[in-house]
Amino acid sequence: DGGITQSPKYLFRKEGQNVTLSCEQNLNHDAMYWYRQDPGQGLRLIYYSQIVNDFQKGDIAEGYSVSREKKESFPLTVTSAQKNPTAFYLCASSFPTGPQHFGDGTRLSIL
Amino acid sequence: DAKTTQPPSMDCAEGRAANLPCNHSTISGNEYVYWYRQIHSQGPQYIIHGLKNNETNEMASLIITEDRKSSTLILPHATLRDTAVYYCIVRVLGYGGSQGNLIFGKGTKLSVKP
Description:
The complex is a heterodimer of chains A (111) and B (114).
Chain A: E1 4-7, E2 10-13, E3 19-25, E4 31-37, E5 43-51, E6 54-57, E7 64-66, E8 76-78, E9 87-94, E10 101-102, E11 106-110
Parallel strand pairs in A: 2-11
Antiparallel strand pairs in A: 1-3, 3-8, 4-5, 4-9, 5-6, 7-8, 9-10, 9-11
Chain B: E1 9-13, E2 18-23, E3 31-38, E4 45-50, E5 55-56, E6 61-64, E7 70-75, E8 84-92, E9 108-113
Parallel strand pairs in B: 1-9
Antiparallel strand pairs in B: 2-7, 3-4, 3-8, 5-6, 6-7, 8-9
């Protein structure tokens, strides 16, 4: 089945540690996105990529990094510089003029 | 992106039609109306989108007023699994630059009751 796979579903980070969230899609979508959702809030855009080897910062990129080496993959690294990383992280993908489709998210917590 | 206004919550009886309204009085001519829903602890699910004509797919129908200042999402036969938060979003087609951002507001919490 075609879709967007995020892993792991739950992730725990120690203070001062970098962690990487995986996002893979087999929909042949050109664009991929990372959002953050806090409890009771809407989504905020972290980074997005329109094509391979290119990406742009969203509204809250500080403390995060991404790479887009393959069309299918768009991993997000939450660095130790992100002071409030506890959140629900959502990955999405789309064709240029199509709607964004989302994965089931990764819930990150701090130990 | 234009702002949208939705009621915070609605109830619907199982098997009946659920009609979810959305106001977007400042929508621009090139902005589409998108609907997503989010079930607790899952990613948002795309439902439908449209520009000015009414749209229908296997999930729902979208009715957009002639002046495009409001729209209604219709779930024709609501089931318990349709209980979710429904988001109405207006944005331009495509993803270039700031258009990449989907701005989710508070949405409408739909509760389908037996």
